[in-house]
Each structure stands twice: as structure tokens, then as C-alpha cells.
């Protein structure tokens, strides 16, 4: 799922993602979610917006944009200003009636396709020309202009889904999360959460972090109440935050102590000079603590448990995860891997982070009769917790259900005086003028989210659907055929059912979750390389066979293998050379005879150092080195088994430290070339993308940002450009180096 | 036993004798040769070439570091590369500098030479460094380092790309030390704030490089 707010202005320096999303959507406090002024349900928020002509960073007219790829379910062109200013649209003030309802279909996990809707109501003047019933729209597309509601410059913005999709999106419809068992595994994203039951022991220190043994440990605290620990990985750091239930207001969870940042980072693991950064050194930590199977150990460090049980076995099975955790009054070491401690992620919408599903008002009218919300209001916590309530009530735009929803107004309530028949009738006419054909959605109750909370939350998901992945593959590849000789070649992308691209997608998404390739820029760096390396996800094996022909007669002189055959590139990032394969096998917990490893590594190093010998005195062959059958099988699996293909790429990512480069600022540089028989073509590169790419492919050129020798780097940049456009909100520089273009030039986005 | 001890002492002395920095560097008056922490760790892992194995060096540090709990050498990520690549690339290929550093196989010394740059490269230089004229570029300081069991170069570069300058980088040191097929390379910012005071680590780090030993077995933990 890729999602963004309906406005996408530039970020302020140092602004984090939730703050930026929130700043894009200032909410009218009188028209908030889930209740409006009269404590009746309100299915969205009114986003305040006035065009700010001429101000830096603002367009002259700032259009409302689609929050995600989708299809127009229905829309209505805004009425004229005359109609807007008169009854029935003008009831409490001038009100625009243009609207767009979008349906979004995407994936958030394995076999977890979801459908949700976004509604943009009270749009003014005219909708974007492309917006019509059934039309396809893409995230960030301009769709309309924010209008007026009751004389206030704003539009109504809502996000909702049906019951079936609520279960897929959040994993439940019950108020709170079931903490008697671990959370969902079909998708795991965002923060990892641990439920520590009463009776959990906290130890002063642990001398052997690889041992679960607690016999000789000094207990500093034994908990007497449930504690909830959240583990956040961000830009190389790891933060641990403990929460406990508020004694007076059970719906509130208060922090315990200060957040612990990189407390468990070890200098021993920082061999790459990245600083005491727990996340950046996770690979080394996994190798140190779980030497029998670092790959499974990595999952333990990342998720608090092994998720890929089909492929990974923790060895020993009771290997611990000792982390420093705050308790009331201090900190201590807790083995979070203990089965008594339950594991979750943001994908479970934990109630201790505020998420509560509200399904206790079943009367189908618009009056909020939820005991849960009444309780929050009584306790004075509704304004703090309201945005993370997901509420089940009828859609407010179906004219046919108006009486069912609003008849109570005629009798009044504690908050609202009884309405006269005439007043009721006027309201009904006004509301009906704004209603639309809601189809199935208008019957029964649907689940409503606070749009800011929904968007902020799902920006952490980053699972790529088939359609989203496809868009990362550019329409053309730039190939360097010689010095100043470029070709602009059409890319044929095959992702039909059963194709490699289609089949590897789940493994790739899983690997990205596991190896924390979970920010748009990290994904752009990872897939900018992976998609090019594999010929548009067409093959997980390098073309190692070459043919030499006579340039004059074109007769075949010889057919030969690349010099490092049979240790040629395999997998999504093309694992290459014996040392990398053996490092990967070790990471996967596979033992190889030391002599075979040394012989092959030394031979590769010898050939690497002595170019003339590569084809004349080459001793890398399997038969010559008596490479055991199991090693051959493991090597072949890196390309033939798509789990291994994705896993080996994740290994490469963490072992060679691509993330620190991907996390740098991406300063886009517009590159212009004139390929043969084509006009000028544009592609984009950035120092950050170069460094991340070179970290795996040419580590000795990491700091040499304008090195030209990396195979297909221009083509990688084409994928990178598409990825930046599809995954981020970053704009592309024009010919004057001004960041004004929303899409890469040269018609590179694969859409339609 | 006595003979072995004498031989060992001689071997150690001879090793020490060959360590050198050329040209010689002027150490600050308050440099203390006994003020160091031993750095011993695996460099090979993660770099694509595993033949650096473990590295040991004396990490000399300035007096301002005495009270610091962790006495990191101020280098960023470091690598184990193939010596053939380091000799091929030197310091500065495709860069926007006026000079590059190359290995003279005849004299077995690292040397500097001027670049001839075309108009496009000059434009890039001006852009990268945010300067108006190439005359603003500072010459590189090059040192040939002979450590305990490796040889290589260290380059002090005061030409800081604009992007890095914004982050506060003022002077960088890049080095590569070669032993057989392996090259231990790294770089880092040499002028850093320690407790609010700007400290120049350059002489300390050059002196530290002189003590590098490569290809050592894994440390017993």
C-alpha cells in the first residue's frame, strides 16, 4: 500500500513523516472525527484549505490529490457559485457540492488484498478533466479543488471500508487486541510490540546474551502489572518504549521511564564505523548472537520472533532476545523471546497505542450512542484518543437512509433541542442535495477511520501490490553501448500469473519487511538495483554465457563462460563470487567445509588480482574443487528458489550496509543524454543512490560519485527515477535545476 | 627459550623500525605516545574481500578525548578492498579535484599528479564544491604510510563538496593500506567537536595508521 495526504507540499527541514502528514491536513475542530459538534457521528474530517497565492512552496491553485491509486466510483461536478450560495446548498452558509469517491484496491500483506474508499466532498469550480465514473487515477494526481462548507474554506475528507476489509486491514473488529496470543503474521510492519504479563522478571545484567539461562542472573524487578513495550527502528536507531495502563482511565496507556535509544547497541558489532546504531549493526549482532543460524536470529532481533517458520529455524530453539526495558522505577534486561511474552506489530493496531474499534452503537442512526465513546468523554480523554478510534456506523451520504439516521433530531437529545418539522425538512433537502448514489456502501454500517491517522499509519506498511510494483519498472531503459553511445530501449515487463515477477513479489515484500527496507527511499535503492539486475524481474540468474564472434564475418569464434563461473550472479541482487555465497550460506546457518571455502575464495581473489589469468589459468570449476553436492544445491537455489532469491538480496542489503546510504538525503540530479535515433532523454541519479548501489556492486567506488564503471548504472537510475515518483512525494528537477516536476521526464512511468 | 625471546624482540624492533610516515609529520607538543587504546576487529566481513581478516592498531587520541568513555577513531565506514583496485584507482579518479594520487610502480611510492580536465569536468568541480574558480581548490596533502605489516597512502583533503560542507565537514583524511591482495581503506572527518571544542585529529590518525597490522586471527573474546 502506497498512500499520501491529499496535499503534498514540501517538507520542512527535519520534519518527520507523521508531522508532515498532519501539517498537510489541518482539521476544522468543529468538524472533526468521529463526532461533530452535536455528538452525532461524523465520518470524516473537514480539511481546512485556502490557496496561498504566490507563497513559496505553494502552487497558485493548490489542487486536492488522490491519496492512492484507485478508480473513480462516482463523482459530481461542482455546481455554479450561484447555486452554491443559495438554498438548498446554502443551509448554514455557502457550500460546494462537488465530490469524488475513489475505490482503492491494494495489498498490505501475503494474500491480504484490501479495498478501502476515500471520499472528497465539497469540491469547488471543476473536477480534473480525467475524473469521471470508472476512470483510473494515480496517487498524487490532481483531482479537484477544495471548496467551501458552511462558509468555511474546507472540504470533507473521509476514509472507510466494509466489514470484510476491516478484518483484513486491521486484523479485528473487537475493541481491543487479543493479547493471549501473538499477532498476525500475514503482514508485519511499523513498530514491534511486546506484551509483558505480570510476573515478568527484569535482570540487572546478562553476561551471555546468547544464553536464555537465568539461574545466575540477578533479578532487579518482577512486574506486577501488564507492561507493553514498543520497539521502533528508524534511520539506524532502535528505540524501546514501555507503557502501562493508566490506573484511573483504563483506555489510556502512559509511558514508563524515558525512551531507550540504542541502549543495547554494541561497539563489538560496529565494525563498519557506523556508530552505536543498533539497527545499522543488526546484521553483525545476528551473526554474533545467533552463529548457528544468523538469518533466523535476524528475524528474532527484527520481529521479536521468527515469522518465516516455513524457511527459518531458530537454533537453538530457545535462543533469547535480551533487551534493556524500562519498568516502573528503573531498567532491566528481559528475554523478549520468551513464549510468555506476546509479540505484535503496528499491523495489529495495538490498543495500547490508542487503536480501538468502536462497534457498540448498533442502532443505525447518526446519533452516537457508543458507551465506549461516552466513557472516554466522561474521563476527559476523548480528544486525545478520538483520532485512533475506528468506528462502525452508517455512511452519511445516502439520501434514502436520511430519516433512519436523523429522525431523532425531531425529538432532540441532551445536546440538541428538538427540531421542528419545517427545520427538519429544510435539513433533509440540504443533505439530500449533497448525497449521492452510495450503492452497497450506503446500506448498513461501514468502518470509518480518521483520515490523518489512517494515512500516517499505512505509510509505514510499504507492501507493494502487483500494480504498484509494475509502476517501478520504467517504460524504457537507457543502455550505454559505448563511449557517448546510448540506446533508449523499450522494456517488456511480464508479470502474468506464474511469471517470475509475479511469484517473487510476496517473497520480495517479505524480505523488505524483514531487512527493514521499509521506507520509500530504501525501497527505491533496493529495487532500483534489483529490478535492473534481474532484467525487469525476468530472471534470477546472470547471463553468464558469452559468444565471441568475428566482427567482420560474424562467424562464432568461441562460446565461453564468464571468468567467475560457476559463482556467477544469482538472486534479486545477484549474489556473486565464492566469498559472498559462502558468507550467505553461513548467514543461513549452513556449514561448509573450511578448505573448500578457502580454496575457492583464494582462487577467486587470485584471478581478480591477475586479469590475464582469468580465462587461461582458471581453477574455479566445481569438479576441480570437488564442491560437495549440498553446496551446489544451495548455490542453485539462490536463483531457482524465489524465497532464496529474495533472502540473498536482503542479506546483501544488510551485510554490505546499503541502508545508511539510502537514508541520506536524496539530491536528485537531472541527467540528459541523446540516444541513437531518439531525441533527448532524461534520467535521474543521486549521490545517495550511487552510494547504496556501489556498496554492493563496487564498494571501492562508494565515495566516487561520478564513477562510470558500474554495469548498467544508467539503467538502474531509470528504475530509481520511477521508484522515487511512485513511492515518494519528492519532485524532480527541471532543466534549471528547480524541483518542480512531479513525474520523471521522458514518459517513463508505466501506467495504464 | 632465551634465544627465542631475543629473536622475538629483534623481530618486533625491526618491525617498529620500518614503520614510517613520509613526509614526516609534526606531532603536537602535547602528543603522548602512551595515550592510545588498541583497536582490534574484523574488517573483512561485509566488504566483499575477506583477506584483510582482523585489524589491530593503536588508536592515539588527543587530550580532549581523555574523559570520553568511547574513544572512537573519527573514521566513517571502512572497508577491505582488493589491492588491485586500490592501485588501479588511486585517490581521485573521476573526482572533481585538480589532482589525483596514483601508485608509481617503479619507486613503489604514492605520488600526486595534476588532472587535465575538460569543460564539463570543470563545471562539475565548480558545482560540487560551490566555488567560483578552480583556483579556490586546495592542494592535497599526501603521505606514504608504512605500517607494521602494510603500506599505502593517506590523503588530507580540504576540498569539501558543498553538500558535506553543509554538514560541517572541514577536512577529510582518506587512506588505504595494502597487504598482499587486501587493502584496508577508510576515510573520515578530521576536525571534530569534542565537548564544544574543535579538535584536529589529523596527526593522531596518521600516527595511528603507522601502527596498523592486518591479517590477524579473530580476537579471543
Overall description:
The complex is a heterodimer of chains A (752) and B (221). With 752 residues, chain A is an alpha+beta fold. Chain A folds into three domains: 17-172 and 355-458, Distorted Sandwich (Glucose Permease (Domain IIA)); 192-277 and 321-351, no CATH class; 466-741, no CATH class. Chain A is 27% helix and 22% strand. Chain A contains 22 helices and 29 strands. In chain A, helix 4 (282-289) packs across helix 5 and helix 18 crosses helix 19. Chain A is globular and about 100 Å long. The model of chain A has no long low-confidence stretch (mean pLDDT 94). Chain B is of the alpha+beta class and 221 residues long. Chain B has one domain. Chain B has helices spanning 2-18, 83-89, 119-129, 162-166, 202-209; strands at residues 20-22, 36-42, 54-60, 78-82, 99-104, 109-114, 141-146, 151-157, 172-179, 182-189, 191-194, 197-200, 213-216. A six-stranded antiparallel beta sheet of chain B has the order 1-7-8-9-10-4. A three-stranded antiparallel beta sheet of chain B has the order 2-3-13. The radius of gyration of chain B is 19 Å and the shape is globular. Mean pLDDT of chain B is 84; it is low at 10-17. Chains A and B meet through helix 4, helix 15 and helix 16 of A and strand 4, helix 2 and strand 10 of B.
